Every structure is written in C-alpha cells, then in structure tokens.
Amino acid sequence: MKKMPIIIDCDPGHDDAIALILAFAQETLEVKGVTVVAGNQTLDKTLGNAKKILSFIGKRPPVAAGAARPLFRNLETAPSVHGESGLDGPAIPEADFKEEPLCAVELLRKTIMESPEPVTLVPTGPLTNIALLFSAHPEVKKNIRQISLMGGGVAMGNWTAAAEFNIYVDPEAAAIVFDSGLPIIMAPLDVTHRAVILRSEVERLRNLGGKVPVLVAEILDFFFEFHRAQGFAGAPLHDPCAVAWLVKPELFIAKPFQVTIETQGKHTAGMTLADQRPWTSAAPNATVLLDLDREGFIQLIIDACKSYN
Ligand code: RIB
Ligand code: CA
Fold this sequence. Notes:
Layout: E1 4-10, H1 14-24, E2 29-36, H2 43-56, E3 63-65, H3 79-82, H4 104-114, E4 119-123, H5 128-136, E5 144-150, H6 165-169, H7 171-178, E6 184-187, H8 189-192, E7 196-197, H9 199-208, H10 211-229, E8 235-236, H11 240-247, E9 252-257, E10 259-261, E11 272-274, E12 286-292, H12 294-306
Parallel strand pairs: 1-2, 1-4, 2-3, 4-5, 5-6, 6-12
Antiparallel strand pairs: 7-8, 9-12, 10-11
C-alpha cells in the first residue's frame, strides 16, 4: 500500500503531541519531517517538546525549527492552556537526538521538492512557517497535494470571541495560506470542540498500560484541567483532527466554503469568515470539517497509542 507522505508543522502543545503520536502510528502515513513554530510556547520550548515526544515514541524524523514569532505581530503564547513548558504535566526525558541544521522553511522546501509523491502538509499551530515557505519558495506548490490544518472557527473563536488561537497568533500568515490556491482541509473549533476525550476514555488509555498510552493519559490529565474549568465535558483533541481526516475521512462531516481571514479588525483579527450564504457565488477554498463520529475518532487515538506497546 502506497503511504501518503506528510510533513507536520506544530507547536507542541499537548494536542500537538497527541497528533504526532497518532500520525507515527499510521501505516498509511509516512512522516517525512516535523517542523516547529512558536505558538503555544516560545520556539525553544516547542522545539524541545517536539523532540522529547519523538524520542519518547522512538521516532527520529528530520526536525527543524522555524519562526520564533509571527510575520508582523508580537508572539502571543498560551501558558494558561499548556503551562510554562508548553507541555506541563508528565516528566518526559530529554530528547536523544538533535534537530537539523536547516531552518524549517529549508527543510520543508527540500523535503517537498525531493519527494517522488506530492506531499501533504499538516500544520497544527500558527501558520507562520507555511506562509514563509510559500513566500520564499512558491515553486513548492507544484508538489504539495493538500494542506490538512487545525485552525479557525466558523461559529466562534476561543482566544477571542472571533478568533481561534492558531489563526489569531498570525492572521497574515493564515491569509497567505488560505489564498495559496492549494486544497485546504480545515479542522476548526466547530469540529474539534466535539472531538473531546472523556475522563472514562482517558482511564481506558491508562489501564492499557505501556509507556505511550500512559504518557498520553498523563498529558491529558493536565490538558483536562483547563478545559474542565471552561465547562467542557472532556478535553478537545484539536490537532489530532487534522491527522485523523487523512487516515479516516469517513469519520467527519465536511462542507466546502470560501474562508476569508480577517487581518484588519480591531475586535475580529484572526477571524475565519466562512461564506455560508446558500446563494453565494464565492468559490470555495477550503473543505471545512463541522462534525465527527466522536467515538470512532477516540478509538483511532486509543488504537494508535496501543500500537506502540
Ligand atoms: O485553538 C487550538 C489550537 O491552539 C491547537 O493547535 C492548540 O495546540 C493550540 O495551538
Ligand atoms: Ca497546536
């Protein structure tokens, strides 16, 4: 079976970590590289977290550090959600490998241009690295199959009433990506707020035993706290949705929309405006995930964790 080549661009981040664990467990995916961006925490922390997770699961793909800040705006991190380390909770051993001497844009360019098959990009943080890639090396677009990203919100934001965190941090970068002309699969809060893992399911993971299921349970123990205080029934697994669509798209309900990124608004900067007018003549630029088979999605996560045992 031919594997789908992907590159994950992330800001670990509890849910980014689970997205990495999910991706590396799939026989249908070939993770050709992992690039890191500032977002949930500063770049030094997100890079360190990415390498720690990969070392812990025994994977050592090329890893490269990217943008330490958004294109124009000051970096805003999310310690309230992910802690000061960006991956608070379990003690994870230091990484046993080093990142590439290349920057993220160069690793992305090289990997994409050298791939015999068109590459799928899987951004799960602010889109700064991807925007820089398209600006510096537009030639890569001819060998990119699609972009499956976590970001945005049709009905609401989470960082502001209008904007979801990944888009809010770097709206200008998101605008470049959504204007790229490439096929985009967007996993917004509308689906990720339904993609929650319940306490009972976290205990199923812990009771599986084994280093990876137990680590994921401990990662979720911390991630639960913030979201429980917000009134969620469980912990929303935002970033794994962008990977799960590539593996089992049938788990999701999706609709095509034209999605425009607000970059000027005083109150709406980072908003992902989906044109839902039934009579619109606007050409869609994104396949927007709106709902999912939650139990099927959680089973995919649990099976992935179990596969490391
Ligand atoms: O809004 C959720 C997104 O912001 C996720 O990617 C999470 O990791 C944070 O980066
Ligand atoms: Ca993320």
